[in-house]
Input
Amino acid sequence: MKTKFLILRFSSIGDIVLTTPVIRCLKQQYPEAEVHFATKRQFKVLVESNPYIDKFFLLEGKLDSFIKILLAENYDYVIDLHNNLRTSIIKYRLGKKSFSYNKLNFEKWLLVNLKINRMPDVHIVERNLKTIETLGIKNDNKGLDYFIPSNQEVNLEGIIEPGEPFAAYAIGGQHFTKKLPVERIIELCSKINKKIILLGGKEDEPAGEIVVQALGNNIYNACGKYSLNQSASILKQAQYVVSHDTGLMHIASALKKNIISIWGNTVPEFGMYPYQTEFRIIENKNLPCRPCSKIGYNKCPKGHFKCMNDLVLENLDS
Output
């Protein structure tokens, strides 16, 4: 008889990608596990092609209606990798044995507000897996997963010459303080001695155009032109990936790319640096105000934005 598990993680791109080792290890290591996953509808692309997920549920509209759908599944266990008010309500209503991720909110508060680092030197993937260690699940050390449907693979003919190495730069970010200013993006791109494809959402397209105008034909602005899966396909084909602390960085980790990871107001000590892939971190470690948030702001709280403006940018191909 199968044991039914429900995994809860409602946002966002990077955080959901970081749950994939839990999904895979549970499916492969627990006898007769049936693994279901609940997330928001806008993140369907992250779960629909995962072969380790037997069934997924997409939240939109009222939570009560969503819970009634989940109740009909009669789960054996609930694995809460989000651990917020919404997931607490779901766990209570389902009334099943649950395992909840430790968010370490106090330790994060200490680091952000008092600059006292009590965060464990453990990646968030390991902390996710610790949630289910009492079930006998162990890390298989295969890293993150990201599955690109074959019809979403991108042919770069006309953009990149066959066999030509190129860099992909994910210039976006959920918050202003996690992104290099456009003039510094231009400076960084000028230190890359190969063709560069800029990746991001529609909101990043204007910044990409400014970079193209500054540096010319060496840059292709793909921001807003491709879906998430298609952007992942471009990452997969790149020689290496440059990224801010954002979802595409974690997708690049899943694809085992060499990553140059750029950090602004957040810090790798939160445990969300690239996982089980080769990477290099660029950050300004000499600021008493950093980290100023565990997430980010729409402007620098101090007004100087030195975490990005004072970054030392070296030639990335040296």
Q: What stands out?
A: Residues 71 and 94 are 6 Å apart (CA to CA). The longest strand covers residues 33-40.
